[in-house]
Amino acid sequence: MSKRSIVPFGPQHPVLPEPIHLDLVLEDEKVVEAIPSIGFVHRGLEKLVEKRNFHDYMYVIERICGICSFMHGMGYAEGIERIMDVEIPDRAKYLRTIWCEMSRLHSHLLWLGLLADAFGFESLFMHCWRMRETILDMFEASTGGRVIFSVNKIGGVLKDMDSSMLRTFVDMFDKMEEEVRQLTNVFLKDYTVANRLKGVGILTKEDAILNGAVGPMMRAAGIESDTRKLGYAAYGDIDFDIITGKECDSFARCEVRIGEIFQSFNIIRQAVAKIPEGPISVDVKGNPNGEAFVRLEQPRGEAVFYFRGDGTQFLNRARVRTPTFANIPSLVKILEGCDFADVPILVLTIDPCVSCTER
Amino acid sequence: MNKYGSFTGGIFKSLFKKPATYGYPFNKREFPERTRGHIVINIDDCILCGLCEKKCPSAAIKVDRNKGTWSIDRMGCVQCENCVVGCPKKVLSTDVNYTEPSTTKTVDTFTKAGAAISEEKGASMPNCNLDSCVFCGLCAKNCPQGALSVDRATKSWKLDETLCVSCGLCVEKCPKKCLEMGEDKTKNTAALAPYDVDDLPKADLNACVYCGICASACPQGAIELDRDSKKWVVNEDKCIHCGICYYKCPKKCIAMVDAETALAVAEEKAEDTGASLPKADLDKCVYCTLCAKNCPQGALTVDRANKVWKLDADACVSCGLCVDKCPKKCIDMSASSAAEANEPEFKRGYDVEATPDANLDLCVYCGICAKACPQDAVTVDRENKTWTVDEDKCIHCAICAYKCPKKCIDMK
Amino acid sequence: MLRVLSAVLYIVFGALIAGLLAGIDRKLSARFQGRRGPSVFQPFYDVAKLFSKETLALNHGQFVIAFSFLLLMVLTGVLFFAGVDILLVFLSLSTAAMFLVFAATSSNSAMSTMGAQREMMQMLAYEPMVLITAVGFYMSTQITNGGKGSFKVIDIAMSDVPSIVYLPGIFLGFLFILTIKFRKSPFDISTSHHAHQELVKGVTTDLSGRNLGMIEIAHWYENAFLLGVVALFFLSNDWWSIPLAVGAAIVVYFLETVIDNISARVKWELMVKLAWGVTIVCGGLNLLVLEYIF
Question: What domains are there in chain A, each with its CATH number?
Answer without folding.
Answer: 4-358 (1.10.645.10)
